[in-house]
Amino acid sequence: MVIDRTSWMEINLMMISVVWRKRGFPIYWQLLNKKGNSNFQEQCETLGKVLNRFERYKVVVLGDREFCSVKLGKWLNQQGVYFCLRVKKNEYIEVEKDLIITLRELCLEPGESLFFHQTRVTKTKRARGFNVACKRQEEQLGWVSDDPWFIITNLATLEIAILSYEKRFSIEEMFKDCKSGGYNLEGTNVEGDRLVLLILLIAIAYTATTIVGRAVSAKGVEKYVGRVAEKDREERRHSYFYIGLYAQSWVSHLNNPIVEIVNQLLCLSPHKRNNYRKGMRAMNLILSAL
Fold it and tell me: Is the sign of the CA dihedral 155, 160, 162, 167 positive or negative?
């Protein structure tokens, strides 16, 4: 479960999403009547309205540096919830008895990681009992990250903490899909209750479209909708959301009168009929997934 905040113009929106298949699905959102970051009370109120609906599940709450409060970590721990909250590099931790340093002073090299078990965090009001996972990304194609991850958590190992926190970025992709990369939410110029209702509609449409995209991919016909692979690229080029969105647009032409004209033109190019039949079969498979 990821908590994050996004803003545009005068809109300041805090949202919680559930991660599934590398995508965040919005389940709760709240408009903040102010500019800037949320505070501890707002974060607890927002999470409190969601966590009780997931009592039967093991939940891991993920948050970036806006949600790095030690107080929030202690509160989540009291709720019986796992968490991974990224803290700033100027945060203090106790690496040895009575030896307190900032996380910046660890001077992690690319690819290096550390894990501090049941350590104290912060210099003045020390909080005991947090694990601290630290990792700096390896060098990739000559690029080296200058911004290591420092994560306070109650998860037991470095590997689980890092794998869990990596899922936080799913909400960034979701925000992009709902805004400039898809539904253009920020271009609607609505606010207040109308904005809340619009987000509800987008949340439903986004979830349905992503599920359709996964179904289309499972049928092996996503290549008809988008270029799904590139040379030397490990990650998928298009998400399930993209595939689902453009698959619906693609098959909308199936009942277009121009189809009959295309059938007639194929009589002039019989060598193209096999490819055309494959495309029509792909359309029918996509329709079965809608």
Answer: negative
